[in-house]
Amino acid sequence: MSWSPQYNRLGPPKAPKRRYPNPILTQLECEHHEVAIRDYTQEINHHLSDLERSSIVSMEMIDLQPEIKWYMRPYLLDFLLEIHQTFKLEPQTYFLAVNIVDKYCSKRVVFKRHYQLVGCTALWLAAKYEDKKSRVPTLKELVIMCREAYDAETFVQMERHILSTLEWSVSHTSLEDCLQLIHRDMMDIPTKHEIEKIARMFCEISTYKRCLLQAPPSLIAIAANLLACSVMDTPIGVVHFYQAAEKYVNEFDDDATFDEDLENQLPAVVSPFLSGYSEDTIYEISKISMVLLLAFQECSQSLLNKYVDQAPTVSRFIMHKAFVMEQFPSLEESTLLGADIPDHVHQNILSLLLLHLISADYDNNEVPFTAFEQPPQFMAPPQMPQSSPLTTPPSASSMSVFSEREYGMIHDTPISSPVDRYVQAGKRKRNWYVDDSPLNSKDRGVLM
């Protein structure tokens, strides 16, 4: 029997093989979890509602930053998205990290050379708060991701500084929490998983827009879910919206809910309306939907790469609704939500979201699908006097969200948006946007 020497392997230890849990056990655990938290639903909704009101970021304070400008925000978010996707972190981790960055920038002066450090440290904190311990990136990995621009001790110091600035409170009602509240009460349909992905894509797009920082996350999630249901051509989102609105109205009806024992208790919070429901709620949702549709035409390549299977579906939807998109008013981003939109544009957005189709009576989960068979009727804009010539509305993608021209940069921003590439590829390959199946590798190479 011959003896052979044992050689020690050099280098870092290999990561253990990831073991996927049993799907049946996972489903049973989720069902038991729903039963366990059923008695605490109102307490959870109250807590999320209080957090939503207290975690709104001030845009005016971020405007006072001497070096950090809004055109730098997309570059940082693209970088965080790539790290988030590399480590396969939870969806709420990204939203919490963005909120930590915004709250820190609204309270402290951040220099340009430290902006990436703040973003990576915020993602590190959010991963500790939301993810499993095995998925939290290590200090060495963060240093490598930043190409050794900062050392490990710098991340530890920044973590301590962020926590002390936020008074050791990083809780936040994220967009993912609001989406989970919506999808928890929705009926199970075959396309529900795809609706969740498209709604999450719109929620991530909203983090790039300055005007949506002060919008309640619950309204943004509702608008994203309605848009996703419209893209998938299903009325389930509208049915859930009106059922929740009717429940909210009945909850606060004095004649129907009067009870002496409930006099000294807090009013109930009806999900997903964490910020309440009023006559202006639908109007605000329509404006948020308009902002999200316009923002999709300027979204970054990182988002398109992450949602490579869902982006063509949304682009086809925008192509089919080009008549409505052309009527969107061209306003400044800072006044987009505060300005009034014309009545015909508001009605067309409601038609686009299928909010006008719920006219029949429904009971519980019975959906009047016959009411959705007719296509929505879009209103034409009011005719201008003949003395004034009609002008073509400006293109929503004529100026990219990454434009640096106003800051005196040398490089020009390309006029075409990433969506234009999908449109041009769809014209060359007709079977791409007729077939609803996911793109294969050959077509994907043409589109990208």
From TrEMBL:
Ranges for domain Cyclin-like come to 78-164
Q: Per its UniProt record, what CDD domains does this chain match?
A: CYCLIN_ScCLN_like
| Superkingdom | Eukaryota
Family per record: Belongs to the cyclin family.
SUPFAM superfamilies assigned: Cyclin-like
Which PROSITE patterns does UniProt cross-reference here?
Answer: CYCLINS
Q: Under what name is this protein listed?
A: Cyclin-like domain-containing protein
PANTHER family reported in the protein's UniProt record = CYCLINS (PTHR10177)
- A biological process term (GO) from this entry: mitotic cell cycle phase transition
Where are the residues of the annotated region Disordered? Answer: 378-398
What Pfam families does its record include? Cyclin_N
List GO molecular-function terms, semicolon-separated. Answer: cyclin-dependent protein serine/threonine kinase regulator activity
Quote the biased-composition stretches of kind Low complexity, using this chain's numbering.
385-398
Key words, A-Z: Cell cycle, Cell division, Cyclin
